[in-house]
Amino acid sequence: MSKIGYVRVSTKDQKFDRQHEKLKDEKVELIFEDKLSGKDTNRPKFQELLNYIRNGDIVVVTELDRLGRNNKELTETMDILKSKGATVEILNLPTFKDIKDENLRQLLNNLILELYKYQAESERKSIRERQQQGIEISKQKGIYKGRPTDYSYSSKNPQKRLTYFKILEMLEHGVPIKQISEQTGVSRPTIYKIKKKM
Predict the structure, then answer these.
(1) Domain 3-95+107-117 CATH assignment equals 3.40.140.10
(2) Whether the domain at 3-95+107-117 and the domain at 145-197 fall into the same CATH topology
(3) pTM, full prediction
(4) Which residue in 31, 29, 38 sits closest to 16, CA to CA?
(5) 111 SS3 class
(6) Would you kindly state where each structural domain of the chain is located, as residue ranges?
(7) Mean pLDDT rounded to a whole number for the chain
């Protein structure tokens, strides 16, 4: 059994340092790094990781969203890792590494992952609903401007639309604007505009 680390940032300007720092104490044998969006599993280093891991290995990541951005992507990733006989250890979620029974450890691990995936999806839906309610109120007051911006719920670019919801989610959780900008690659003035509209 080997522990394999995986780190990912969304843009070339972002650093791996924070993730490496968290993985340092986990005694991982090897770390694979991707500087790409988590929009799908077709990432070079992630594919290398899949070719490297063997039955019984543990893939270690700092946060769940390093593996994917939504329920569909996370489920796809988990299914691939499961088919390889590997389990996943996510450092900001409860861990079951002290449980010796591999089947029980995997069962509990999968249960926690499903709960957190469901929670993340529910939060995104809640953000969208609140935003739609805000639009309706603005329309009633006659102050709604329907012209879509680059980053908005109505953006024609699916990636920018996903990024917009990610920004909303981070703002909801009180993440500093500088950090949001670093993690999403979106300029701070644009994030301030999104925050103002919230």
Answers:
(1) no
(2) no
(3) 0.53
(4) 31
(5) helix
(6) 3-95+107-117, 145-197
(7) 80
- How far is Cα of residue 18 from the mean position of the Cα atoms in its chain? 15
The 10s digit of each residue's pLDDT in 100-118 is 777 787 777 777 777 776 7
**Where residue 144 falls among pLDDT bands split at 50, 70, 90?**
low
Residue 28: Cβ within 10 Å count: 19
Distance set, CA 63 to CA 8, 73, 127, 197 (Å): 10, 14, 21, 28
Beta bridge partners of 5: 31, 60
Contacts 24+ apart (CB under 8 A), 102-109: 102/56
Of 168, 174, 77, nearest to 128 (Cα)?
A: 168
The answer on pLDDT for 4 being more than 90 is yes
**From CA 100, how far away is CA 98, in angstroms rounded?**
6
CATH architecture of the region 145-197: Orthogonal Bundle (1.10)
CA angle 98, 100, 103 (to 5 degrees): 115
- The residue type found at 78 is M
Distance from C-alpha of 104 to C-alpha of 112, rounded to nearest angstrom: 12
User: How far apart (Å, rounded) are the C-alpha atoms in residues 43 and 22?
Assistant: 22
Of 2, 10, 152, 155, catalytic: 10
Assign 186 to helix, strand or coil: coil
Look at 127 and 55; give whichever has higher pLDDT: 55
User: Quick check: is 126 catalytic?
Assistant: no
